[in-house]
Amino acid sequence: MTLARVIGSIVASRKTAALEGHKVLLCRPVKPDGSPAGSVMIALDAVQAGPGDTVLVIDEGNSSRMILGDSMAPIRTMVAGIVDRVDLYKE
Asked: Would you give the DSSP letter of residue 71?
């Protein structure tokens, strides 16, 4: 899983049936301190995340398809959780 921040959404007037009813979000990976950490990802939203939310993103097709409950869905990346906070502990 990847820690990311929702930075936008994609509007698609037509989607494959397996994706109907789900938002498509733009998510930027972030470090635990909130600073950017990689390239923007497109992810299907399973948890009703919104702009500015810190989220957990799964970037693995089989896990994403299991969340959707459709073993044939054409999906790889999915928002699977909304993060309330990140606690960092000193080593």
From this structure: T
Three-state SS letters, the chain: CEEEEEEEEECCCCCCHHHCCCCEEEEEEECCCCCECCCCEEEEECCCCCCCCEEEEEECHHHHHHHHCCCCCCCCEEEEEECCCCCCCCC
Q: State the pTM of this model.
A: 0.89
Tell me the pLDDT tens digit for each residue of 65-79: 998 888 889 999 999
**Which pLDDT band, with edges at 50, 70 and 90, does 25 fall under?**
very high
Which homologous superfamily is 2-82 in? EutN/Ccml (2.40.50.220)
